[in-house]
Amino acid sequence: MPRHFLNLDDINVDILKSILKHAHELKAQKFEPPQILRGHTLAMIFDKRSTRTRISFEVGMKQLGGHTVILNMDDIQLSGAESLEDTANVLSRYVDAIMIRMSDHEVLSEFASHCSVPVINGMTDLSHPCQIMADILTIEEKLGNIAGKKVAWFGDYNNVTKTFEQAAPLFDFELVISAPEDIYADAAAPMDAAKDADVIVTDTWVSMGQEGKGIDKFRPFSVTPEIMAAAKDEAIFMHCMPIHENEEVSPAVLKTPACVIYDEAENRLHAQKAILAWCLEEAGVNVAAE
Ligand code: CP
User: Fold this and answer.
1) 49 among known catalytic residues
2) Ligand 1 mean position to 55 CA, how many Å?
3) Mind listing the pLDDT tens digit of every residue in the chain (290 residues)?
4) What is the chain's percent helix, strand, coil content, to nearest 5?
5) Is 203 an active-site residue?
6) Where are the domains of the chain?
7) Domain 129-265 homologous superfamily, CATH
8) Given 3, 4, 22, 101, which residue is catalytic?
9) Whose CA is nearest to atom 3 of ligand 1?
10) For residue 84, what are the CA distances in angstroms to 76, 104, 125, 183?
11) Is 131 a catalytic residue?
12) CA-closest candidate to residue 136, choices 267, 290, 10
């Protein structure tokens, strides 16, 4: 079976740690990246808009010597005229790996089951594993080993929260979720969640596809300077972006040294280069190349 990257909890934690180690190495080599993906092509399929995922995968492939083909769902036969199975089989004959952003995780899994090349989850309604690999890379870079750290999540309970939930037992960190009780039963009060936290993290209250959703119930879970003050002195603020200022986060928080959102966005690039290298190792990619 090809090495798919669909969910963190599908993959052995030692493999995830080796991918992160490689990501740190690739970041250190960012001005002279090893050409380990030379001759390999990644197809990217999107049924939702994207800035970071699209650009970081495209640039990452090119930095390592590879190529990309970008396919918007509306432009290919998959959007109605052709089956998942036929599309998966045909793409597997043209490219070496496929990254997909689509809403329905079950459809993504079915598509991957028909592919003979690795498939990478570029975000579904269930999970966003590439984002959380980049987030762990960022936490390690700023604070050292993530094991034993307290990560406090604020706001919606969404695909990014659920991927943090997958990661917490794998990487042995404490995850505290502060969210409206009607969407997360075991929610902590905001100040309790923030107290002595190493990482304060939030996301938009209205994910793509949820336009028109009411946001008033999320307002008590906004990340404010008071929330940051309750965390540890060296705590960092993270957000996978795009940001909605004065909703999930106060503008003042974004102007402090604790805010590491641009490092986090950059780390999508390095984490995904390492994920691509792992996925393609069995296709001859030399992960250890300098
Ligand atoms: N964080 C994230 O996935 O960003 P994009 O939606 O811009 O890809």
Assistant:
1) no
2) 9
3) 999 999 999 999 999 999 999 999 999 999 999 999 999 999 999 999 999 999 999 999 999 999 999 998 888 888 778 899 999 999 999 999 999 999 999 999 999 999 999 999 999 999 999 999 999 999 999 999 999 999 999 999 999 999 999 999 999 999 999 999 999 999 999 999 999 999 999 999 988 888 877 889 999 999 999 999 999 999 999 999 999 999 999 999 999 999 999 999 999 999 999 999 999 998 878 877 76
4) 45, 15, 40
5) yes
6) 8-128+268-283, 129-265
7) Aspartate/ornithine carbamoyltransferase (3.40.50.1370)
8) 101
9) 53
10) 11, 13, 19, 33
11) yes
12) 267
Nearest atom, ligand 1, residue 240 CA:
1
Q: Give the closest residue to 256 by CA, choosing from 288, 285, 231.
A: 231
Our answer to whether residue 128 is catalytic in this structure is: yes
Same fold yes or no, 8-128+268-283 and 129-265 = yes
Range 8-128+268-283 classified under CATH 3.40.50.1370 = yes
In degrees to the nearest 10, what's the CA dihedral of 208, 239, 15, 7? -20
Selecting among 131, 156, 166, 270, the annotated active-site residue is 131
